[in-house]
Design a protein that fits this description.
With 215 residues, the chain is of the alpha+beta class. The protein folds into two domains: 78 residues, Elongation Factor Tu (Ef-tu), domain 3 (Beta Barrel); 96 residues, Elongation Factor Tu (Ef-tu), domain 3, CATH 2.40.30.20. Helix content is 18%, strand content 38%. The strands form two sheets. Strands 1-2-5-4-3-6 form a six-stranded antiparallel β-barrel. Strands 7-8-11-10-9-12 form a six-stranded antiparallel barrel.
Amino acid sequence: MFTGIVEEIGTIQGIRSGANSSTLTIKGDVIFDDMKLGDSIAVNGVCLTVASFSKNTFDADVMHETLKRSSTGELKSGSSVNLERAMPANGRFGGHIVTGHIDGTGTISNIKRDDNAIIYTVKTTSNVMKYIVEKGSIAIDGISLTIVSITADSFSVSIIPHTAKSTILSEKKVGDTVNLENDVIGKYVEKLMSFEQESKPQSKITQEFLTKFGY
């Protein structure tokens, strides 16, 4: 589990591409303090496993499903990426629950300055929008953010200077693709409610039955 508080900006040093997969070599600094083989690292919000590592680089395998669901396939050698280690059990919970499992992607449709903040508007699909609520949480490229407004097919977030400086959002332009992960709580609530409805026995009391007997 992650919190959406990016620890550092890393760099893609190399990409080895397979037919429907790839292996990324990523350079960083901070996250190597206690790195171990098999650790989970969020790379632009995508949970990847450390397959091998050296002093300041690590390799991570990316499967077909991840390439389909995220913007990882658009990365190139030299691309900047947000990096966050998995949350330690004794760590501070500074953001919100982030699993590193991307729900879909969005496209930045507008960027505008609002005094000391920057407003990013992201257009996305209905499958992602249905879980988005005003003042709720969302992870954009692994960054825990608060939604300030929504429309039928887009939402906006307000970025403070520290977040812009500490993440790759400051490099983003209109038209760029970003990874999106909805707040997991909404998805679980939806599943539990639909499961309860599906498992309930069907009542024999219908509108036709009530009409027939004068109700």
